[in-house]
Amino acid sequence: MRSSASDLGVGCCKYAFVGQSAAFASIDKTIRTIAPWDCPIIITGETGAGKEMVARKIHSLSQRSEQVFVPVDCSTLTGQLFESQLFGHVKGAFTGAFSDTLGFFRAADGGTIFFDEIGELPLDLQARLLRVLQEGEITPLGSTKAFPVDVRVLCATSCDLREMVRNDKFRADLYYRLNVVNLEVSPLRDRKKDIVILAEYFLDKQAKLYDKPAKKLTPSAIKILTDYDWPGNVRELANVIERAYVLSQSEEEIGPSMFPTEILVGDILPERGQGQEQEFPAMDEVNKKLVIRALQATNGHKMAAAKLLKIDYGKLSRFIKKHNLCPDYR
After folding, report:
1. Which of 65-74, 119-128, 201-210, 302-311 has the lowest mean pLDDT?
2. Which fold has domain 35-186?
């Protein structure tokens, strides 16, 4: 049965975690099992794979679902500023501290706090975070008064925290405190069945955003999307679909001509498996794929395709005739 965005409670999220692949079904089952418990969780996976969506899903199914979800990007703030953001401060604690602040932990009291890219957290702040987790209270900068906090802690990282622990870049005691459950989000290239579902979700989202008619992907557009490896994962797909929706002048469908060049030619060379030598296709096969994609991207206009490929128009015409190329432009 196909999953929908509404099924997964992602209305508050920028990107949806939806799908029908085996990898999706597995992690969705795990999420539903662990969500009711208050244990810390580390969510791992490549950048853009949907780690925050998993965290939000866990929160939405937990007993804290009616309370606040506070995301914290550990890669953007460091030093005293981050410490203030995390634990709060009192007026006069440092230059520019003109009033008291709660900080992320007190703001998340009763709810969930989500540390994105937890591996970026400086070692000194890791020590303070560990103390908060152990004692259940925080002390704002410049204050001696401790405040109890009741939060569930979820973390995400694209780094290998175990390797960081071995290299003394991440505290072992904090790692073991956080890593009660480890959830790995598979990259989009390993969830091929989810690509079209996600693309259709993003198309629908754009239509609602601009109050415009829904648009459909053509068969050739679907093939290109599913053939591509998506190194930027769900985030990259969302951006490609948004671009295609905005640029498309058709009120009904979106074809390959709306995709950027890297998407059109992304699968020209086969991916090399781990421990395998890469097998290169014949030059003619590569060139045929390139020409077909260029023609699709230009709706069959040979002159525009020649410019896209940076070759002479006559040479392109002879190649098309020689190989009897007639791609589907839909």
Report:
1. 302-311
2. Rossmann fold (3.40.50)
Reference 259, options 283, 242, 273, 277; nearest CA is 242
User: What pLDDT does residue 4 have?
Assistant: 38
Residue intervals of the chain classified under CATH 3.40.50.300 are 35-186
Task: Using the predicted structure, report yes or no on whether residue 108 has a pLDDT greater than 80.
Answer: yes
Residues 214, 220, 223, 228, CA torsion sign: negative
Q: What is the mean pLDDT of residues 214-231?
A: 91
Q: Can you read off the two tokens belonging to residue 46?
A: 């490549």
pLDDT of residue 10: 35
Q: Domain 278-330, CATH 1.10.10.60 — does that match?
A: yes
The answer to pTM > 0.90 is no
* pLDDT at site 216: 94
Residues of the chain with CATH 1.10.10.60: 278-330
- Residues 6 or more apart in contact with residue 249 via CB below 8 angstroms: none
Q: Which residue has the tokens 């073991």?
A: 176
Paired with 115 in beta bridges are: 72, 155
User: How far is residue 166's CA from residue 45's CA, in Å, rounded to a whole number?
Assistant: 20
| 79-88, 118-127, 225-234, range with the lowest pLDDT | 79-88
Q: Please tell me the number of Cα atoms within 13 Å of 155 on its side-chain side.
A: 27
- CA angle 87/45/277 to nearest 5° reads 150
HSE toward the beta carbon, residue 293, CA cutoff 13 A: 23
Question: Which has more confidence, 318 or 22?
Answer: 22
**Separation CA 70–CA 114 (nearest Å):** 6
